[in-house]
Design goal:
There is one protein chain. The chain contains 11 helices and 7 strands. It is α/β, with parallel strands linked by helices and 268 residues long. The chain has a 7-stranded mixed β-sheet with strand order 1-7-6-2-5-3-4, with helices on both faces. The longest helix has 27 residues. It is globular, with a radius of gyration of 20 Å.
């Protein structure tokens, strides 16, 4: 909707220009493009300014709606400009009421972008490595939207992140997603899952949504050459009651197994 609004505003500016100054193709086209780009930049600047009122050293009391909208909007723009054709299968399994923890394999930096774009109505934020949250502008906007850094090299800091993510879920601030591999897998095989990731669902008493993603690893190679089809598969939703009865190790092993089995069915 926001992109459509910007397009209409840019078109309106172009129409006003034509009525006042006459129609010249290149000038009208340049004005339209300039207005559209300026509106996009202005919106991102507003979101960035709003993020400065968020303290990254403290948990959020509420989600910053401008930051959340900026994340969604950026995901739509990036997937569009990178010629990514996104597909989701099994979305009907997702809980319509209440929050959940989503786990998935990790193929590319495009993974969270695709999830944000495809599942935007579910308001999902991510637990990510600290370096992502330290990026200029994007880090603050992400934090304001509910994203959290996890330092797997420091057990105390990692536990703090797990407890904060669980708190966000309990308070209904947003749903959370985490990549239990901890980093991107470079080949077709999954890396070992970190069992501690699953404590978030147990402590928050929410369902565990197991998903797999494929195709994002090809986006960088295909940009400007051809479209890339990316698939997000919702494989299973484990109810909160069952999550509590399983150990984190069992949850990690089960999730890894069904993700690996699903990836084997997808053509390379």
């Amino acid at each position: 909707m926001l992109i459509l609004a910007f397009l209409l505003l840019a078109l309106g500016a172009a129409v006003i220009y034509v009525r006042c100054c006459g129609f010249v193709v290149w000038k009208t086209a340049l004005l339209f493009a300039g207005c559209f780009i300026a509106l996009n930049l202005f919106y991102l600047v507003v979101a960035w300014v709003a993020s400065w009122f968020v303290n990254p050293s403290k948990p959020l009391s509420r989600q910053n709606s401008l930051c959340r909208s900026a994340c969604v909007y950026a995901s739509i723009i990036v997937t569009g400009y990178c010629w990514v054709r996104t597909h989701v299968r099994g979305a009907e399994k997702l809980p319509e009421a209440g929050r959940f923890l989503m786990v998935s394999n990790h193929r590319s930096g495009f993974d969270p972008i695709v999830v944000t774009q495809l599942l935007r109505r579910f308001n999902i934020s991510f637990v990510s490595k600290p370096s992502n949250m330290e990026m200029p502008v994007l880090g603050r906007i992400g934090y304001g939207a509910g994203c959290l850094p996890i330092d797997r090299e420091n057990d105390r800091k990692a536990l703090t992140t797990i407890l904060t993510a669980a708190d966000y879920l309990k308070r209904g601030l947003c749903s959370m997603a985490i990549y239990p591999e901890g980093t991107r897998s470079r080949g077709s095989e999954l890396l070992p899952f970190h069992a501690g990731s699953f404590k978030i669902a147990q402590k928050a008493n929410v369902p565990l949504v197991i998903t797999s993603i494929s195709g994002t690893e090809k986006v960088g190679k295909n940009v400007l050459r051809r479209p890339t089809d990316v698939y997000l598969d919702v494989l299973e939703v484990i109810p909160a009651e069952k999550v509590k009865t399983m150990s984190t190790r069992e949850l990690a092993e089960y999730s890894s197994r069904i993700i690996a089995e699903n990836l084997k069915t997808i053509p390379a």
